[in-house]
Description:
The chain is α/β, with parallel strands linked by helices. It has one domain (2-221): Ribonuclease Z/Hydroxyacylglutathione hydrolase-like (Metallo-beta-lactamase, Chain A). Helices cover 20% and strands 29% of the residues. It contains six helices and 16 strands. The strands form three sheets. A seven-stranded mixed sheet has the order 6-5-4-3-2-1-16. Strands 7-8-11-12-13-14-15 form a seven-stranded mixed sheet. Strand 9 (111-112) and strand 10 (117-118) form a beta hairpin. Bound molecules: nickel (II) ion (NI) and manganese (II) ion. Nickel (II) ion (NI) binds at residues 47, 49, 52, 107, 140, 167.
Amino acid sequence: MKIVWFGHSAFLLEGSTKVLVDPFITGNELSPVKPDEIECDIIAVTHGHGDHLGDAVFISKRKNVPILAIYEIAQYVASKGASSIGMNFGGTYTHKTANITMVPALHSSGITDSNFTHSGGVPAGFIIQIDGVTVYHAGDTGIFGDMKLIGEIYKPDVALLPIGGLFTMDAKLAVKAAELIKPKYVIPMHYNTWPPIIANPEEMREPLNNMGIMLVVLKPGESFNL
Ligand code: NI
Ligand code: MN
C-alpha cells in the first residue's frame, strides 16, 4: 500500500482499491494537488467539519465515486447530490478490495454551510484494510481508553494520529495514544495547517522508538510505502 498525505487529515490509501480520507484540499494551503487531480474509488469522511468534509461532494460528483460516512453525513451529502453510503460504529463496509470499519472518535461533528449548522451525527475514525495492510485513521480526536481495544481488535500496521492540539490531542498525548494502539508506524496529521495547531512531530520520535514504534513524518505530497 502507498499512503499519500495531502496535508491536514487528507490521505489517499492506494492499494488495489484507492480510498481517499477527509479530502480537505480547497482552502488547504499545504495541499500539493487540486481536488480534480485525485483519483480514488471511494471517499471516507470522519466527521462534518469543513476541514474534513472538504471537497468530498465535489470529488464524489466529478469522479462518480461514493462517500462513506456516518448516517447523518451520508444523508447530508446525498442532499447535495453526491452518492453516499451511511454506516455507524462497529460496522464494516466492503468496497471492492477495501474493508472499512467505523470506530469512535472523541470530538464534535456539526456541518456548517453558508447559513446553518446541520447535525453531522457524531465523529468517527476508520480502520481501513486493503491488500493485507491495516491503517487506523483516527479522525479528529482526543485520547480515549478504547484506543487500546481498537489496537487489540484490528492490530493496525499504521496509525494516522492528529497531533496539533487545541481541537485534538497534541504530540505528547499522541505518543500515549500510540502506546495504547501499538501500531508498527505512526504518521502524524492535523498539524501546522494554521497557527493554532503548530506542532513538532519530531518530539514523538524518541518516545515512540522506545516502544518499538517508528515515526514517519511526511511532507504534504509525500508518501509512505509498506
Ligand atoms: Ni474537527
Ligand atoms: Mn479538524
